[in-house]
Amino acid sequence: MTEFRVAPPAVRNRAGDEEASRYSRREFIKRVIASGAVASAATYIYGGLQGCSSRGTVASGVGGSVERLIRINVNGQDRPVDVLPQETLAMTLRYRLGLTGTKLSCDRDECGACSVMIDDVLHNSCSVLTHSVRGRKVVTVEGLVGPNGELHPVQQAFVDELSPQCGFCTPGQVIAAVALLKQNPNPTRDEARHAMAGNLCRCGAYDNYLNGVMRAAATMRGTT
Amino acid sequence: MSYKLIGRNFTPPDVVAKVTGQAKYAEDFRADGMVFCRFFPSPFPHARVKKIDASEALKMEGVLGILTEEDVRNPPAPAATILTNEPRYIGEPVFALAAVDETTVQNAMEKVKIEWEPLPFTVDPLRSLRPKSPADARLDGNVGAAGVELQTLRWTQADFDQAGEGKLPMGTAAQEWSYGDVEAAFAKAKLVYDESFVTASNSHHSMEPRTCMAYWQNGKCFVHGSTQSQSFVVPPLAGMIGITPAELVYVAEFCGGGFGSKGGAYPTMAIPALLSKKINRPVMMRMSRFEEYAVGCARNGFQGRVKLGFAENGKLLAADLFVVQEGGAHTGFFDFRNAADAVSIMYQPEAMRWRGVPVYCNTPTRSAQRGPGYNQMAYVMEPLLDRAARELNVDRLQMRLLNGPDMNAPVGKDRNRVTSCYLQDALSKGAARFNWAERVARSGQRKGSKVTGIGVGQAYHPAGFQNFDGLCRITPDGILHIHTGVGNLGTFSHTGTSRIAAEVLKYDWEKCVVVRGDTRKHLPWNIGQFGSNTSYTMARTNYVAAMDALQKMKEIAAKDLGGKPDDYDIDGNRVFAKRAPGRGMTYAKVAQRAIELGGKYTGKELPADINPMTQASARALSGSGLIGVAKDNLPAGQPAAFAAAFVEIELDVETGQHRIIDALNIADCGTVIHPMGLETQMKGATVQGFGAAVLESMIYDPQNGLPGAVGFYQAKPPSYLDLPPQLQADWVDKPEPASPLGTKGIGEPPLGSAAAALLCAISDALGGHVFNRTPVRPDMIVNAVAGLPQSHKPLQIHTA
User: Fold this and answer.
1) With B787 labelled, which of A92, B389, B473, B729 sits at a CA distance of 20 to 30 A?
2) Closest Cβ opposite residue B107 in set A55, A113, A145
3) Residue B357 CB neighbours (<10 A)
């Protein structure tokens, strides 16, 4: 099994910094997939065989009776990934697949910063075991942007309504809004805030997020 | 005055990255060979580590190293420590351990043997002030704060006995001031209150825990941190790491919320850098939510007493304020002093005395939190003002207009005058938009178990600093690069204030780039993004840098095209002769000429009075274009920000639950730079104000010092469902004269005004009952309605 570190050499470039990187992360990931390599990021969070064997409670390499090498579908791509039995989806996304748009804030299913869609249903990925999403379709904030970089209507509406403040909860708010509009394309403001209630925003930008949800709903219905 | 950019909305350059997930926060960075560390949180509220034996842990496969107090340079006591062998609150970092992954770190931590000596502790300031205190939070004293030397202060038994049932004892103060004849002013009063109060300490609850990643490369230390500020963090962080500022590369392009708790460098930031040096690997230190509630700071809690004397017409004649501050275990913030300034400016008593005692407790370090001290007094004073209005039969809005500050109101002990105040305009504008008269007529109306309550609240905060540096650069491609060392706390004001440089130079915004977020981008020395200062401080720095660039452009035009610099003007991205506009040069050409001319034009000669950091940045940029660089030596002002809020609620007197029907918050923030940015700040502050008023508090078990609010669901920041369907915000938009374009800050007061308005609305629905306590919780309301005693004692703190 080829081990492949997800991060390119040195520090990954920052958002908006066009000069610094030789290739984009998107392209890098494509190459990884194309090469058939398995993303394992061996030295990251409870990822390494080294870490497991030393602990003794997790059987070396294979995690007891649970198979470690599984396939999950993330943002439309089948991703073979090497995971531990106790690994959460948020950690897999962030530390094995390099999808750092999904944030960790409470890691206790309280705040929604790690929101993803699994088969179109909203979940807090900090509290979902990666093994439970085998063969299922996971969509993260990175999966919403169109092939030519066009923003999803929810993302565009959040820009137009200046919904984010610090931005840390924003990917989760985006996903929660997309999940809502899949189920209910025409929500009232009150329905929207109940649907979004699992996503905390300490900046208190709730009003602007709701404005964004309502604007996106209208856009997606084609009424604007 | 009409501007091309100022006062107009724009799409901030960092907002798309926020909605796509491309924005990189500290935990989103990776470095080759990166490993993980965690700190060991103290399980005791106060103890001494007699011995740490990590030998077994260090033998474990994958474990790379340990960092203890002996490896770090802690700042002098009583400042918060990086790591300590005398932890003073539960969760305080004792040592840090690095390993290839976090599971290994955690497993190894369990193998570290620590010999503990538990020490006495307290989570109650009054307990520590008792004549024979059974416990102090620190071994080296029990009283102190920023500006108050560490000392041991005891009150006498008589101090406690004289206080009276449920009243705050008032022994010797650590600090005090007064102006006017307080006794004479009280003697004139028609109505006198003597109220004891409690305002809860609450967490900042930043959504991004304070993760930090660091590594060393080519003699430099690279740190990816989570701070509200950029340049301001560099010197103290370098100091904690033990390097010069020039040896530190600091990246803080995004920050997932700080609200005062990440204003400057904080001690845990040094841990990954020092461990990385020790083990020669990049080190990531993530933070759990529990740990964030421990090391993430909190607002100071108050136990206080305020005596107020009102004239018959409602004018406040005298105020006598005493504040005991529950200040955490280390040098915290000076909320207790700010409290006095708030009372003095907001109600303009003829005479006033303030006394304060900041007491150390075995609770997390206190830092500024959005309106530190000022806002707590809004929670306390505004409901009392309503009570006096009710008793004296004065309209509550009138009560505020009568007592409130005017244009150049004096503030605090020194009676210095603010350079602008339009609070009266904010109140009037808000009252009109809120239909105050019509709504207040409904106050107290009952439908079934639900009673209507109407409230108005107001608050103050200073609104800016002076004497920092500005730096901008025009390159031969005609682009204006505005270098800003301010941070990114989520207000978009890093760009809003940068637009001032563009405005001065009449630049098309499409030709401007805001350069920020990374010391490698050559940033000027700027103060941090806190204290409602950015829209004033950074307006001035960007203004002086742009004015310097403008002068240089005119000089270059005069050199090349003849005449004197004053013969030239700018517009349309070119400098031209006023009398013959066809004779001129494009900005691109001027930038090219600046490089050729050298000297001051391209940053090879620099002003002597700019900070060394700005000097180094300007020098690094020299030769790349026309450099505008200057220190803000503009005439000083005393900017002040104000807000007035209006709230209508429906209070269910059977359950104690309320529903907010409507909320409006109005700013006095000078010239508006970015209307959408301002509006979302006002609304966000409103949300946080509601949290402070009715939801949030830190909780400690007095017997064991255990924290009880260590998750969002316990510490309770507001959610979507705690709010009305839509919030309202508006502003006065009148210029601050000490700011070149009239701008001043606003971040903090709208939290206090919103909290106060909600508290006043609750009191209003209860027929004027004042709780003298925050947060006001449903059980307190039910008890008040039923005439039952409260479940807490009057001065009890940390209640659930």
Assistant:
1) B389
2) A55
3) 29
Q: Are residues A160 and A83 in the same domain?
A: no
Angle at A201 between CA A195 and CA A204, to 5 degrees: 105
CATH top-level class of B15-119+207-295? alpha beta
Answer yes or no: is pLDDT of B747 > 70.
yes
Mean pLDDT within B262-268: 97
Give tens-digit pLDDT for B190-234.
999 999 999 999 999 999 999 999 999 999 999 999 999 999 999
| Chain segment B446-480, per-residue pLDDT in tens | 999 999 999 999 999 999 999 999 999 999 999 99
- CA nearest to B761, candidates B747, B788, B781, B783: B781
B-chain residues near A166 (CB < 8 A) = 206-208, 254-258, 488-490
The span from the CA of A15 to the CA of A100, in Å, is 11
Within chain A, how many helices (H) and strands (E) appear?
Answer: 7, 7
Question: So where are chain B's domains?
Answer: 15-119+207-295, 301-463+639-786, 469-631
| pLDDT score at A32 | 42
| Boundary residue ending a domain (A73, A107, A141) | A107
**A166 touches B: beta carbon within 8 Å:** yes
Instruction: Report if residue A89 sits inside a domain.
Output: yes
Note whether residue A135 is domain-resident.
no
B437, burial (CB in 10 Å: exposed 0-12, middle 13-18, buried 19+):
exposed
Smallest CA–CA distance from B493 into chain A, residue:
A165
Range of the domain at A184: 153-221
pLDDT at B214: 98
What is the chain A residue with the closest CA to B21?
A: A101
d(CA B159, CA B179): 24
Instruction: Please state which CATH class domain B301-463+639-786 belongs to.
Output: alpha beta
pLDDT tens readout for residues B613-669: 999 999 999 999 999 999 999 999 999 999 999 999 999 999 999 999 999 999 999
How many domains would you assign to chain A?
2
A94 in the same domain as A9: yes
Give residue B365's identity as a one-letter amino acid code.
Answer: T
A163 and A77 fall within a common domain:
no
Answer yes or no: do A8 and A97 share one domain.
yes
Q: Express as a percent the part of chain B with pLDDT over 70.
A: 100
Please give the single-letter amino acid code of residue A154. V
CATH topology of domain B469-631: Aldehyde Oxidoreductase; domain 4 (3.30.365)
Cis before A85? omega within 30: no
CATH topology agreement for domains B301-463+639-786 and B469-631: yes
Distance of alpha carbon B70 from alpha carbon B780, whole angstroms? 48
Residue B423 φ/ψ, nearest 5 degrees: -60, -40
**CB distance from B659 to chain A under 8 Å?**
no
Torsion over CA: B263, B267, B271, B273 (sign): positive
Q: Quick one: pLDDT band at residue A224, thresholds 50, 70, 90?
A: low
Structure confidence by residue, pLDDT tens digits, A26-76: 444 444 444 444 544 444 654 443 333 333 333 334 444 567 899 999 999
A76 and A166 part of one domain? no
What is the CATH classification number for the domain harbouring A183?
Answer: 1.10.150.120
For residue A188, is it within any domain? yes
